[in-house]
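Give me structure tokens for this 223-residue protein.
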Amino acid sequence: MKPFRFLYQDESGEVGKGQSYFVVGLLQVREREPLWAAMRRARDRWHYANELHFEKFSNLRQRVYEAVLEEVGKEKRQFRFEALAVPRTAINLSYFGQQRHLAYNYFTKLLLEHRCKNLADAVMFTDAKSRIKEDNFLEYLELEMNLAVPFRQGAQPKRVIKKIEPVDSKTDDLIQLTDLLTGCVNNRLGHTAGPRKQQVRQKAEALGLIKSGNIWVWKPRKV
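Here you go.
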């Protein structure tokens, strides 16, 4: 099978604040065209053109979200979804200079480092947020993945990440799919939600798109 060539990253919650867990989600994709086609089929079925966002629900959105999960579930060979869940109570922000964005950067890097194997020249896409450029998120990940990680793991030096591009989630279906799956993980871990969200999460579980094996609940090392 072809390697995973494209990475899509999103998050749910805030680091060490609010919800019980902060979740980083990562969609690893071999070929994008089959997934794009699957999502178009779901959209066309319901004549739906708006953004898919797990925080926004209605009866129509629920039907669309479930249709999207059903269609992409037919293309499982083309992707893998991984998530890192960080308990709010496990975070000590003093290790990050009380800067939440530094903790966010670190946990995103940790997920890439431990759940993405044999990457080479992958292109990564992340939701374009105002803070992305302000906190060196793009530069940090590229440096860590291309320079530090291969040497730490004893591998031959290679370019793991070719480039990281911020994209507008409103225009990118695969970022939106990542958002849905990441939201489902947070819901699975107990974040309070209404029955519509519960049913969409249950659909993702029934299709095998999220399960215990692809959710890493982080714990700090004992010292």
